[in-house]
Design goal:
The structure is a single chain. By secondary structure, the protein is mainly α. Helix content is about 75%, strand content about 0%. α1 packs antiparallel against α8. It is globular.
Length: about 260
């Protein structure tokens, strides 16, 4: 990869332009991530069943709370990778990137699997009416499957931004949204000969979309023409880097969890 093409111009006379060039794709990307839930709610509303609409709202609350550790890990990984990349210490940047993504995948698996048996209890705790609770629990159990890919994708996209590339995560998030709308509509209403699954089809559309997004994002990390993270780094641990990650992760996690 041509490292000269990855330089960021930080001269004072061009700094405003550089900041805007890096910022606007990240702003759009974050808006697109939020649009997934908005699109799901909109499509569910077209089903004209208030029980289903209530179910999506309640399930979305738990997913919002579960975002906190991954937002924190993403911020920490972005910070370390961006500094190392700017110093041209590509080995540290890649090792940190791989380790952070590996941790995100493992944590997502543990949280999503652990939450599955408690789906019914959670939706009832959040105040679901008796006629809404079964729908909400089933919807949440499917939506939790999207977390296996959706949560680590937050970390991998943050790492890519840390290398100075804010455009690829934006395009990945945009494609994820397009896939989400397409499959959610097809599965919800049973178009093109598919079974009409209602709100559960919307959930499966989200699972498919986040799976596609994660494959693209993680693929860019591993590709030599992308970030070039060796797959071995996903499982290899470095105590010094782990301490740096933890030192920067826990305050952000505490802040995000408290806000949630």
């Amino acid at each position: 990869m041509d490292r000269d093409n990855l330089k960021t111009d930080l001269r004072l006379k061009t700094l405003n332009g550089t900041i805007w060039r890096l910022a606007w794709p990240a702003i759009v990307e974050n808006m697109l991530f939020s649009t997934v839930l908005l699109a799901d709610t909109l499509i569910t509303g077209w089903l004209r069943d208030e029980r289903m609409l209530a179910a999506t709202a309640i399930a979305g609350l738990l997913m919002f709370i579960m975002n906190a550790p991954f937002i924190a890990l993403a911020a920490a990984a972005n910070s370390i990778v961006s500094r190392s990349w700017g110093e041209r210490d590509y080995l540290t940047a890649r090792h940190c990137a791989g380790m952070a993504l590996g941790l995100a995948v493992g944590l997502a698996g543990v949280l999503c699997l652990a939450a599955q048996p408690f789906a019914d209890w959670v939706v009832r705790l959040f105040g679901a009416a008796p006629e809404v609770a079964p729908i909400g629990a089933a919807y949440l159990q499917i939506l939790l499957l999207s977390g296996f890919c959706g949560f680590p994708m937050m970390v991998s996209n943050a790492i890519i931004r840390g290398t100075g590339n804010t455009y690829s995560p934006m395009w990945i998030a945009g494609l994820m949204n397009a896939v989400n709308v397409l499959f959610s509509v097809l599965l919800a209403f049973g178009w093109l000969g598919l079974p009409a699954m209602g709100v559960y089809g919307v959930a499966w559309g989200t699972v498919i979309a986040r799976g596609v997004g994660f494959v693209l994002s993680a693929g860019y990390l591993i590709r030599p023409a992308g970030v070039g993270v060796a797959p071995l780094y996903l499982i290899r641990r470095d105590r010094r880097l782990l301490e740096r990650l933890w030192h920067q992760t826990w305050p952000t996690f505490a802040e995000r969890f408290t806000n949630s």
